Amino acid sequence: MTETIRDGKFVELTYKVTDRKTGQVLTGVEFPLGYVHGHNEILAPSVHRELEGRVAGDVIEVPIDGNQIFGARDESLVFTDLLENVPEEYRQVGTSILMENDRGQTRSFLVTRVDDKTLTVDGNNPLCGREVVFRLEVLTVRDASDEETRAGGAIAAGADVDPSLMRPV
After folding, report:
1. Distances from the Cα of 63 to the Cα of 4, 50, 130, 141, angstroms
2. Domain co-membership, 133 together with 83
3. Are residue 143 and residue 108 in the same domain, yes or no?
4. Sheet holding 118-122, edge to edge
5. Listed residue (43, 32, 12) closest to 132, CA to CA
6. Which of 5, 30, 31, 55 is deepest in the core (most CB within 10 A)?
7. Does residue 24 fall inside a structural domain?
8. Contacts with 154 (C-beta within 8 Å, 6 or more apart), sequence order
9. Does residue 139 share a domain with residue 60?
10. Are residue 101 and residue 57 in the same domain, yes or no?
11. 64 and 21 part of one domain
């Protein structure tokens, strides 16, 4: 009997996200991503809805408007500064920088441009303002173990630990 994706099923899949206009691959996972359907929303709700009823081997494409998920692009979250004002470890495109405002709120910014004199960071989600397509390949669908359900996903293999050796810190 073929297992279908529904609440309580353990699902493994891979995916990639492409820009609908340019066809550029924006992000993806090469190694299987495991989760328990209905217990751990790891992707956009519309993607989870499209996965319902699918089986291992299915490949689906789900178009998504980034504005609906992340809101409209906010140009006030884009800053350019002189390169000399930026620590050297942040001077590479793609570097994520966690910044804090004067109210103590934090936001992740991504370095999007570096030239000889300036560096630009963007606090918008990279999918914001884009129409994208999630292409997902379902690899595994099976009953989730109790442990996976409690954890919401795959359980990493680890060393067995003798409980008698454990002590409070």
Report:
1. 22, 10, 11, 23
2. no
3. no
4. 78-82, 118-122, 106-114, 96-100
5. 43
6. 5
7. yes
8. 10, 12, 34, 35, 148
9. yes
10. no
11. yes
CB 138 within 8 A of CB 61: no
Nearest one of 123, 121, 115, 122 to 84, comparing CA atoms: 115
Residues 87, 57 share a domain: no
pLDDT in tens, the chain (169 residues): 689 999 999 999 999 999 999 999 988 888 899 999 988 778 888 899 999 999 999 999 999 998 888 888 899 999 999 999 999 999 999 999 998 888 988 989 999 999 999 999 999 988 888 899 999 999 999 999 999 888 877 776 543 434 443 333 3
**pLDDT for position 161:** 38
**Residue 2, in any domain of the structure:** no
- CB-hemisphere CA count at 13 Å for 11? 31
Is residue 162 one of the residues assigned to a domain? Answer: no
For residues 141 and 38, the answer to whether their CB atoms sit within 8 Å is no
Q: Please report whether residue 169 resides in a domain.
A: no
Q: Where are the beta strands (DSSP E) in 75-158?
A: 78-82, 96-100, 106-114, 118-122, 131-143
Q: Which residue has the tokens 């103590």?
A: 104
